[in-house]
Amino acid sequence: MTVTFRLNGEDYRFRDDPMTPLVDILRQEHFLTGTKAVCREGFCGACTVHVDGEAVPSCLKPVGLLHGCEVTTIEGLSSGQEALHPLQAAFEAADAVQCGMCFPGMVMSLSAFMRDNPGACRAEIKSAMVGNICRCTGYERIVDTVVDCLDTHRQTTETAGSMNV
Amino acid sequence: MAQSVERSFTVAGSIDEALAARQQGAAVLAGGTWMMRDPLRGVDLPEAVVTLHRIPALSEVEVDPDHTVIGAAVTHAVLGRALRGLAGFEALVGAAVGAANPGIRRVATVGGNLCTLDFAAADLAPALLVCEAMVEMETFDGPKLIGISDFLRDRPTLLADAILTKVHLRRDLIASAHIRLPLRMAGDYPVAIVSIAVDKDKRFRIAVGSVEAVARRWTALEKALADEPGGFAPNPERAAELAAENNDFHGRDGTEADGWYRRQVLPALVKRGVAALLKTEGQA
Amino acid sequence: MSELSATVMNLPRRDAQDKLRGRTKYTIDRVRPDMLHAVLLRSTVPAGRIRRLDVSAAHDCPGVRAVATGADAPGLYGIGIADHPLLAIDTIRYHGEPIAVVAAETEAQARAALAAIVLEIEPLAPVFTMAEALQPSARLVHEDWRNYEIITEGGARAGNIAWEAKSSRGDVDAAFARPDVRIVESSFTVGRQSHVPFEPRVAIGSWEDGRAHIQTSTQVPWTVRNVTGRVMQLPPGRVRVTVPPVGGGFGLKFDASIEPITALLARMTGRTVILENSRQEEMATCLCRENAEIRIRSAVTAEGEIVGREAVVLMDCGAYGGEQVFLTTMTAHTLGGNYRVGAMRLVSRAIYTNTPPNGAFRACNGVYNTFALERHTDEICEALGFDTIAYRKKNVLRNGDLGATGQVFEADVLGPMLDRMETLRANTGTSEAKADGRLYGTATTVGTWFVFVGPSAATVNLNADGSATLVTSGVEIGSGTMMQSLPQIVAGQLGLAPDQVIVREADTDAAGLDVGVGGGRTTVSIGAASVAACTEVKEKLLRTAGEMLQTRPEDLLLQGGRVEISGRPGSGATIPAVVAHAQATTGPISGSGAFTAKNTPAMSGCAMGHFIDALDIPVFVVHEAEVAVDPDTGHVEVLAYRVVQDVGRALNPRAIMGQIQGGVVQGLGYALHEEVTITTDGRIAQDNFETYRLPLAPDVIPVTADLYEGAPSMGPLGTKGAGEVPILAVGAAIGCAVARAIGKPVRQLPLTPPRVLRLLHERETQPEFPHIAPGWAANTLG
Q1: How many CB atoms lie under 10 A from the CB of residue C271?
Q2: Which residues of B touch C761 (CB under 8 A)?
Q3: Phi–psi pair at A122, nearest 5 degrees
Q4: Under DSSP, is residue B156 helix (H, G, I), strand (E, B) or coil?
Q5: DSSP class of residue C695?
Q6: Which residues share a beta bridge with C273?
Q7: pLDDT grade, residue A164 (50/70/90)?
Q8: Tens digits of residue pLDDT in B159-192
Q9: With a threshold of 0.90, does the pTM exceed it?
Q10: Domain locations in chain C?
Q11: A125 to chain C: which residues are within 8 Å by CB?
Q12: pLDDT at B283
């Protein structure tokens, strides 16, 4: 079976078993190893990618369901020498990263969450992280960083808004 | 990587097409969140699958004043958004926005949740039980409508020659609540679930999930509440007492919790459920 | 600028950006299309004898390039005793034990070929628990235990007792016989904890110029090198180990396990071979923090003085001795720590069972012994009517007090730290109001740990561009040591900026011996070796500059990338100019340094079977928890968590705070959520993320921490490792707080909701140990 979808902005045609999990195609065929296959059961979130803009686990996504979809991986979020996503830059500045294996998935989940929930509070951020496990950091610095990022974003938007007036 | 290049994968564009594939032995692939874990359980993936996600009617939630229809391919996330704020659907919304984790909720569907036979902790089952939902199936002999209780009980045979297509809901509830008890704050399958609702006739409906292998109505407790002198005036403590007196569940033993624990926590969940109902009604 | 002010800073990590962009290539990300994939045939019974193992048909399966069994790698390895084969030889000792391995072009081909292996096993009656293993009639897990090579002398051994370590100081019998004492006895039992590093154990082996090269996700490149040499019966020098960035270790990767198999297959095939554990395999064969059973008795006067203490600690090592053999040592320093005790005797035994082998986990042994000691201390307070905090203040170790092995502790540390905790609590306030009708409890506990020193080597090359290259066998496992404290230390010594210090990835061909990243030792041991290397570099640099500037070297100093004449800022020459001059005259500038333990003395005759007689660098913690317990469901919510940690010197305070938050949360997992049980057929029941419950974001709270500086340390600039200990006293603080909240004795961890509800309903079976004899001496091999 042939499945056609867009991967990080380019057309891709897959010809093999449609039940192949997306994460295997990313890692084994494209060497896009930023997407990590940690639990393969949808609990850890390390394999999170965007499918049509939604953050979903790629371990449980059979490629057959992706026909016509737009898939973005961590490598596609800020490629080449492009600037980091503001959340990535904030994690770097805050010294939030330890072993780093969970962070690509964390960034993919939380970047979509911040886009959709710019007014989120701390508890809502934590709820959004239920499917992203981190074994090193104890989470709070990650949460702090998202809180700070959303605050900065709100201030920027408010400033821009008042200038428009 | 999976090896069978010969696998049949039908992306059905219509219910007829889906049924035809089913008749040829294809398994229904919903969001994939359960089936894709089969290899880790030592189970091979099916040789032939059919998906419903391209059938427009099955990916919608239709909300009419007195009738709501949920397509089988609707995800938990979409369901939660569609019904949020509608009085009476609080339990269903709670189930849809509380199940598993956010990534899974964006993928896992209503049909998948109801048709996974081995999944005792499905959140939607008790929530739909208190809604007294009707399940629409497409069988080889035509469409069929069946109550959710009967569906859950008989689904191993029913699904042998049918596809669950839609879930129908009436708007006859004043308020409802969904109380789930994972062992952490969230993220693991709840060891016990109580859905509770009060209908326009002030009758209470209570359903329990995850305690036994299949979710069911707690009719003994419903009757006890109805038999309270003058009808049941919602009181969390009294509800918990009656729940303890009428606890006729046989908790299943699992790695995460034993049967004693699942059964033991039920009165507390009922208490929380009644308290949540009071809060909802207070706001209404 | 002083050396100290040039070193201490909140340096961010240099590896963060690549990790955030998904560009970092961990070992598991280095699969190439031309590699062979290896898959293990693992035992599906917990105990048995291999009657037939015929792999010939597997050789003929499509894509198969090699099949290996125990006969291909007959050497045994271990810690203390060599009892462990790479692949089972004749005997199966645990469910999941590797028996054979297939290397094929694809993983699917390798997996398919496993089915062609003919294996016949005669099952044996398994020994699952320490109670069973200690029965006089118990079947021996290792029938040949007497014939094993002893790698380290001194431990008593017998049958299923893999190793026994004892410490004995003073006349304990006399102390217990005193008429003025109350005797308090407590028993505790704890389960295993699985590390769950996000990168599982994985290795890539190749065979190059007659030598093995293993790239692997390990904390101990030198151990992997040496074990590979042992099992393949090669001189270890014929094995090279390099270590890419490691995706979490927490102690799991402090021993060799599957790595040598890749070298074996590479030698057989001439190809590069990758072997990775699936998540299920990783969890089913995790070298967990061991389950343990502890009985402790104390003789306490009416004033609260602990005149006598004795304890028996049983540690389940699983099927092979592994780390537990070494860790029997730790009981003297953990259970024997915290308090001033008159006379004391402790015995710690590693017991063989037919269960997956256990291993090292962050603050190994200390976590549960601290739980046991602190709960026991609270039981003493309850029995004699003491306030728990006042009691601790009065009885914690002070300057000049003796440890279990007769070591003399220096300086008052725990006492002032308890005072600092009071200040911290006064600043934060308490959280009782958040309990909101639930059962509330709070507890303040203390803990004693140490920095595991031991040999490290470092070389520093000063380059013509003014940068320095630091070459060590240190590994970056996520804690940031190789990214933060080491470049900070080297930069501070040489007057450079940390980003001018290049840190070489661990390579046993490039750097000298190192015992590995663990026990909080890297900053101390590799740091000290690096300082020594820098001393040589500085000496050469200043001598060359002295010639160039016609100035005596002692009048020169290094700062801001220059060699300056003392008192004349901006004078002298740049480091690149001096290096260029040296390269042209005396040759490139480099220095090497080494470090090892100073072997702090114990009292003669006090320690038997110990790998460490006394602590070179003790580390202390004070942990305080506030909890709310739901009486209806048994759920424990942590309302507040406070830490005062002895860090010696904080080189990167922000990074240490990150370690404290992460370590405390792992401890919360151990105390409340993470449960490992053994099934009736000897498997770890929780072998996936559905059943093994790691703490998630909503389960945790921000930890408030105060870094206590100034306690004595032989570490560079007075530092102590800070990443190991944050987990130490979490089980203790939570256990004590929950006991107080529910008003029942807590004697087991983890405190999952079902266990807490059983405790509340008095349905929980409290630990009783018929296999621990009433008299202490009867629990020793004499």
Answers
A1: 17
A2: 264
A3: -55, -45
A4: helix
A5: -
A6: C36, C205
A7: very low
A8: 999 999 999 999 999 999 999 999 999 999 999 9
A9: yes
A10: 2-23+454-595, 33-124+201-276, 292-452+602-760
A11: 697
A12: 63
Interface probe with C: pick from B255, B262, B266, B274, most Cβ of C within 10 Å: B255
Q: What is the DSSP annotation of C733-752?
A: HHHHHHHHHHTS---EE---
Strand B192-199 to strand C81-82: parallel, antiparallel, or no bridges (unpaired)? Answer: unpaired
User: Which residues of chain C lie closer than 8 angstroms to A142, CB-CB?
Assistant: 697
The architecture of the domain spanning C292-452+602-760 is: 2-Layer Sandwich (3.30)
C2-23+454-595 in CATH: which number? Answer: 3.30.365.10
- Give the pLDDT band of residue C765 (cuts 50, 70, 90): very high
Q: How far is CA B218 from its chain centroid?
A: 15
CA–CA separation, B129 and B205 (whole Å): 8
Q: Do C693 and B185 touch (CB under 8 A)?
A: no
Q: Residue C326 has which token pair?
A: 């070494």
**DSSP 3-state percent helix, strand, coil across chain C (nearest 5):** 30, 25, 40
In chain B, what are the domains? 8-170 (3.30.465.10), 173-282 (3.30.390.50)
Q: Could you tell me how many residues make up chain C?
A: 782
**B269: Cβ–Cβ under 8 A, 6 or more apart, which residues?**
B179, B181, B192, B193, B194
Cβ separation of A131 and B40 shorter than 8 Å? no
pLDDT score of B4 more than 70: no
- Cβ <8 Å between A60 and B32: yes
Residues A94-124 have pLDDT tens digits of: 999 999 999 999 999 999 999 999 999 999 9
Report residue C280 as tokens.
């299920």
Tens digit of each residue's pLDDT (9 = 90 or more) over B205-226: 999 999 999 999 999 999 999 9
By the 8 A CB rule, do C413 and C711 touch? yes
Q: How far is CA B145 from CA B217, C196, C225, in A?
A: 19, 47, 67
Quote the tokens at residue B272: 């929380």
Residues C778 and C295: their CA atoms lie apart, in Å, by 13
Residue C502 and residue C493: Cα distance in Å, rounded? 14
State how far the Cα of C398 lies from the Cα of C418, in Å rounded to an integer: 12
ipTM surpasses cut 0.85: yes
A 72-131 residues with CB < 8 A to C: 73-75, 77-78, 84, 88, 91-93, 95-104, 107, 123, 125-127, 129-130
Q: Which helix (H) or strand (E) holds C443?
A: strand C439-451
Q: Which two tokens stand for residue C501?
A: 């210090």
Domains of chain A, each with CATH number or no CATH: 3-77 (3.10.20.30), 81-163 (1.10.150.120)
Whether residue C294 contacts residue C315, with contact meaning beta carbons closer than 8 Å, is answered with: no
> In a 10 Å sphere around its CB, with 0-12 CB exposed, 13-18 middle and 19+ buried, how is residue C10 labelled?
middle
Task: Pick from C13, C20, C279 the residue to mutate for testing the A interface (most A CBs within 10 Å).
Answer: C20
How would you class C675 by CB atoms within 10 Å of its CB: exposed for 0-12, middle for 13-18, buried for 19 or more? buried
Is a pLDDT exceeding 50 seen at residue A130? yes
- Which residues from chain C sit within 8 angstroms of residue A127, using beta carbons? 697-698
Residue with the two structure tokens 């217990």: C176
Calpha distance C703→C724 (Å, rounded): 16
User: Which pair of structure tokens corresponds to residue C184?
Assistant: 């308090």
In the numeric block, which tokens belong to residue B241?
Answer: 């007492």
Query: For an interface test with A, which of C198, C283, C477 has the most A Cβ atoms less than 10 Å from its Cβ?
Result: C198
Question: Is the separation of the CB atoms in C174 and C343 below 8 Å?
Answer: yes
Are residues B103 and A18, on separate chains, in Cβ contact within 8 Å?
no
Nearest to A99 among C22, C247, C701 (CB): C247
pLDDT at residue A165 tops 50: no
Based on its alpha-carbon atoms, the radius of gyration of chain C, rounded to whole angstroms, reads 27
Distance from CA of A89 to the nearest CA of B (A): 23
CA atoms within 13 A on the CB side of A21: 29
